[in-house]
Design goal:
Chain A is α/β, with parallel strands linked by helices. Chain A is built from twelve helices and eight strands. In chain A, helix 3 (about 70-80) packs parallel to helix 4 (about 95-105). Chain A starts with a strand and ends with a helix.
Chain lengths: ~280, ~280
């Protein structure tokens, strides 16, 4: 796997590039990005060795597809059409069902690995790339049986060297669970930010009175809309379901307050406190 | 201010004790707590020098009242009855209107300072106390004009040495703004935790798939219900208002998704992104 192509040299693609180079300094990392500034930045930051064009993908041993999920779903067939018979294309998107569906009958389906490394920050672009981002992180692989065994083995060796834990899941289950533990968090955070900004036009007030708790809860509201709008679109049914349950729980809490039932308010919080134990071990 | 009494030797009271001792190693820190284990822990951790009884408060130069807000409101009159004419009692509660009301006609009102240092973590108890917790944090002081000038001056000197920024506000405005930038965050986090726990009975799934984004958003759901239920009770009207606006914003977002209006979903997020700039400078 000497010739590695990163399509989308942002936070995730860039962090992959850094790890892959560290594991094997002999690889050549090529970058593709629709944003020429990101490509220049990635080169200047030595995240990639060279810029590349789409047609160059035919020389790829490994392609990391790390662009917004709608773009991935649009381009994956054309990418598979272009690569050689021995190449592996791995996508890193936050939704897995659509891309698995799109590729299911492609003659090069066995050259594709659908995965979701659970890693990242609220920032984006090559400047947000982090050395060792994937260390101790989960990498969820979907429909592994549809990928050629030889390519699976090569990929797993790399992921192991990157320090990732592998988990296998079907794409339906992935999209359903991830709606709860990731997609909903982003919406709750964006809407919290919106609610506070709308109210506190005098932004100095927010700054002065907001503590680290608010900053933590609203952190994900800094995330890239270009990345997240397509995720919500592709995972619409699951995300709408999580939102309904979340809104119901909030409405119940509000009703308890309006009924002065603070004993039950206490219980609501007490029953959720064991999230502590669940989260132990997550950074 | 040699004899300092900390009523409630938890995260905030304990952190005050540590700072006060550091500023002036000659002070004697006395601890009171309804929980004998906390008192023993505070002594073992050298957060306090001695345990004390309620009647000892008559020897106090400074009293830090750092217990749940309902208990503070219940005890403040009795505490003011007990202290000497030269002592200062400062409370640190997250709501300010009720305690200001309760004390307004007390003959020792000028010995009382109502304040809210915006600092803390999701943990509680003396083991959660942190050296230097208040460094660069805002301390909101309410109705400062009702506190004796001499005591104001002594208090400000201490807060300055602790590294706090002082902000003055009336208790109504404090309770209204803090509902947005603190109280609502806690509910959004608790209900997010509840929604995910209810769905994901298999907790291993949460652990494996949850990333740092979820951990950050749900962090406040680890907070103490014994501290937070009374806060929500005292600030009921403001908190219910923030919850209504938050629920409306979430419902609007859900409706946009159901209408497949992902252009507007993008805009909703884009418009909230500038929370980045607002939050710059908050840890």
């Amino acid at each position: 796997m000497k010739h590695i192509y990163i399509i989308g040299v942002g936070l995730i693609g860039g962090s992959f590039a850094l790890d892959l180079k560290k594991i094997n300094p002999n690889v050549i990392i090529y970058g593709l990005d629709y944003n020429p500034v990101h490509l220049d930045d990635a080169l200047a930051l030595k995240i990639i060795d060279k810029k590349a064009e789409f047609d160059d993908l035919k020389q790829a041993d490994l392609v990391i597809l790390s662009i917004p999920v709608d773009a991935s779903t649009n381009y994956i067939s054309k990418i598979l059409d272009t690569i050689s018979d021995d190449a592996l294309v791995a996508d890193v998107g936050s939704t897995k069902l659509d891309i698995c569906k799109v590729t299911t009958n492609h003659p090069k389906r066995r050259n594709f690995l659908a995965m979701h490394p659970i890693a990242g920050t609220e920032f984006s672009g090559p400047k947000a790339a982090i050395n060792g981002l994937f260390q101790n992180k989960a990498n969820i692989i979907c429909e592994v049986e549809k990928t050629a065994v030889k390519l699976q083995e090569k990929a797993l060796k790399i992921f192991d060297a990157m320090g990732m834990r592998i988990r296998y899941m079907n794409p339906e289950a992935h999209d359903k669970h991830i709606a709860y533990v990731s997609h909903l968090s982003h919406i709750s955070s964006f809407m919290l930010g919106k609610t506070v900004i709308e109210k506190e036009k005098n932004e100095r007030d927010i700054f002065d009175m907001a503590g680290s708790g608010f900053a933590s809860t609203v952190r994900l509201a800094k995330s890239s809309p270009a990345m997240w709008a397509p995720i919500f679109k592709q995972n619409k049914a699951n995300v709408v379901e999580t939102l309904e349950e979340y809104i119901n729980n909030l409405t119940h809490f509000k009703n308890l307050m309006q009924d002065d039932n603070f004993e039950e308010i206490f219980n609501e919080m007490k029953n959720t406190n064991h999230i502590k134990d669940i989260l132990n071990g997550i950074n």
